[in-house]
Amino acid sequence: MTEAPMTAQAASTATAGDILSRHLTVQAGAFLRALPLAVGEVGARPGTASTVPSAGTSDLLRAVRRIGGLLHTFGSVFEQTWAQESRTELRWLLNLLALEPGYLRRSARLLGALDLLSGTDPEGTGMLAGHAGAPKARALLDRQLTLARTRAHSTVLQELRSARLHALADRMTLLVGEAPLLDSADGRAPAVLLPQAAAAFAALSAGAQQLPLQRAATPYGGDGLRRLGAVPASRGATDADTALAADDAPWARLRILVKRARYVLEVCGRASSELDGLDAVLDRQQEAADAAVTAATAARTPRITPATAYVLGVVHADQRLEVESARYAVGRRWPDLPPGPDGWLELVPADAWGHSVAPRTV
Amino acid sequence: MTEAPMTAQAASTATAGDILSRHLTVQAGAFLRALPLAVGEVGARPGTASTVPSAGTSDLLRAVRRIGGLLHTFGSVFEQTWAQESRTELRWLLNLLALEPGYLRRSARLLGALDLLSGTDPEGTGMLAGHAGAPKARALLDRQLTLARTRAHSTVLQELRSARLHALADRMTLLVGEAPLLDSADGRAPAVLLPQAAAAFAALSAGAQQLPLQRAATPYGGDGLRRLGAVPASRGATDADTALAADDAPWARLRILVKRARYVLEVCGRASSELDGLDAVLDRQQEAADAAVTAATAARTPRITPATAYVLGVVHADQRLEVESARYAVGRRWPDLPPGPDGWLELVPADAWGHSVAPRTV
After folding, report:
1. Could you give the CA distance from residue B62 to residue B316 in angstroms, rounded to a whole number?
2. Nearest to B88 by CA among B68, B106, B74, B70
3. Contact B129 A238 (CB under 8 A)
4. Which backbone phi and psi does A181 adopt, to 5 degrees?
5. Which residues contact A350 (CB under 8 A, 6 or more apart)?
6. In this model, does residue B289 exceed pLDDT 50?
7. Considering only CB atoms, which chain A residues are within 8 Å of B243?
8. Pick from A274, A277, A309: nearest CA to A295
9. Contacts with B277 (C-beta within 8 Å, 6 or more apart), sequence order
10. Cα separation of A308 and B305, whole Å?
11. Backbone dihedral region of B269: left (phi > 0), alpha (psi from -120 to 50 degrees) or beta?
12. Contact: B328, A224; criterion CB under 8 Å
């Protein structure tokens, strides 16, 4: 198994297993190279760091997302129990690794928003310029997010030494060249892989259809603040937390479906800049929604002053506005994307799995 | 002096004074008919009423705005001291009459926004759904606005019986058929009126050029919340109130210039639906900006709970978002409007003042 292009003859007879094994080998290799770097970085980090994850962690997250995505989309050709367990363990590591950089980004987002809103720069004066509650709210948010990040750091440090991570590393070692495939993986690549790719695209289209994309594409429609999506009757709609969680859930789901579709296209050696852009906007949507929750939670801290609470109310609304703005961008981009699964499949080159495609490692 | 069309021959020799006198006669007549109705309405009102001004007050405001606008735009053909004094007195009455309906509209706007933001309707759940501070903030806003409206009502009741109003009514009686014109009003209508109309359109174009209309036309650009206009150095930029007032001022100015331009076109017997639409959007912009100030002021009430203050922060941001949304609408509409004074003058029919045009009384 090698990354070098196969000869045309060998390629035309490639099985689904060949194609997937090759990709998984590359990603598992990236995982194993990045893991010690990431562990070293987390250990060296004093708890405060920059807002972008360090190189090792970043590479590790990248590999984890892709392996998990492929095991999901093309799951039926792998040994079922193994694939399920691997996905569970990868999701565990993903959530663990994403925790600390997530808090760092959230901190940068919220404190940055507060600084803009309370800024007195003539070029960008904010509606809270010079407000007495602004420094207090800033200190409160900073304190709470630093605490959360420090706790996350301890958890990550501890888990990175755990037997669970070693077991996952062993799984990844196995994946290099020896993915546990079922007999169905012996079929020719297009016949086996295309229907599963189509299912991923169908899930993406279905996920998008559940969203009010047309309404979101109307600027200032109030989707982020005033007109949250309907709460399923079973969950009740008595409080804002439930309503906001129910409103954000289908968008969070779309983000996952977009990522899976991106990884499928990568397996075809095809990049979609539209899909990459959509993924970035949905990341922004998600981060703003999470930051809004943090602002709302901070406002419930006992014994804060009314001025602090008032500023947090403005920050909360500002982040929900960011949510609305990101959804507007999604609503505007969506019509330019291929409609339905068939539209996406047209992006798959006819000979996608007929000749060798060098898997992307970035 | 009559509203019936003049013969074509008489019309072709109409002087500027003829045209303006005819319009002012109609508007002054409307003023004198609406005045007793408006006085009766204010007297009969118990202090709480609907959000639209009653018919008499509405008609009176309409006539006051138009007479004031024409005396400003075509001021040079009137006896100067008389025109200046008349405008001052009309502005006094305008501010007086607008006070109570203004508070009614602001109350409806703020309580309506709060109800949407805290609503639990499955079709329109708000980000404050079920929040404990929402009923408290609602009661606070309602109480403060009702108090302000009651005070305004007393002031209006008192002033409507004042000698000042009687003197203004006498001025309007004089205006019916006998506007105090200078000799220059004897010139032919187009020669005298067109340059003054052009000056009004030039002021409108210049007012618009001072605004970041192109930036405003970008959705979610943050103009209402994060990027307020620069505060003139002389006024300092140390607090949000100064920054917001400085930010809103040029937009408030544009609103007045649009109204004046509308009244000029009316004198030409020409309606501009684009200008009417722009006027309505600028009204919305102004009302949202005023409502935002009310929310911010309410949040400074001593001894309110943090939950109340938090909700008022969200409402404040929501109204600034409305400001941004209205400015977006202005930024989108402006390019479709005639560019520069010459563009506007092309809307003036070549024979605008060559044949009789029935002045509009609504």
Report:
1. 31
2. B68
3. yes
4. -95, 155
5. none
6. yes
7. 120, 125-127, 129
8. A309
9. B333
10. 11
11. left
12. no
| SS3 call for B24 | helix
* E strand or H helix that includes residue B17: helix B16-44
Q: What is the pLDDT of residues A264-297, one digit of tens each?
A: 999 888 888 889 999 999 999 999 999 999 999 9
Residue A327 lies in a domain: yes
**Model confidence at A134: pLDDT above 90:** yes
**CA dihedral in degrees (B345, B346, B351, B356; nearest 10)?**
-60
Element (H, E) at B216: helix B213-216
User: Phi, psi at residue B293, to the nearest 5°?
Assistant: -60, -40
What is the C-alpha separation between B327 and A220, in angstroms, rounded? 11
The two tokens of residue A230 are 């309907």
* Domain membership flag for residue B362: no
Host domain of residue A76 = 15-176+187-232+242-352
Whether residue B237 and residue A313 make contact (CB cut-off 8 A), yes or no, is: no
Question: Which tokens sit at B71?
Answer: 């005396």
Q: Which residue has the tokens 């499949």?
A: A345
Residues B146, B140: Cα–Cα separation, whole Å: 10
Phi, psi (degrees; rounded to nearest 5) at B243:
-65, -45
**Identity (one letter) of the amino acid at B184?**
S
Q: Which two tokens stand for residue B335?
A: 């390019």
The domain tally of chain B equals 1
This complex has an ipTM of 0.89
Interface probe for B, chosen from A310, A320, A322, A325 (most Cβ of B below 10 Å), is A310
3-state secondary structure of B78: strand
C-alpha distances out from residue B13 to A57, A97, B58, B358, Å: 86, 86, 35, 17
Cβ distance of B126 and A226 shorter than 8 Å: yes
Q: For residue B329, give the nearest of B240, B224, B206 by alpha carbon.
A: B224
According to DSSP, residue B3 is labeled S
pLDDT at A362 over 50: no
A7 inside domain: no
Rounded Cα–Cα distance for residues A206 and A253 (Å): 11
pLDDT value of residue B81 = 95
Dist. CA A179–CA B51, nearest whole Å: 71
Mean pLDDT of A35-42: 90
Residue B244 CA to residue B320 CA, distance in Å, equals: 10
Please check whether residue A38 lies inside any domain of the structure. yes
b/e per residue B31-46 (b: at least 16 CB within 10 A)? bbebbebbbebbeebe
- Give the domain CATH number at B303: 1.40.20.10
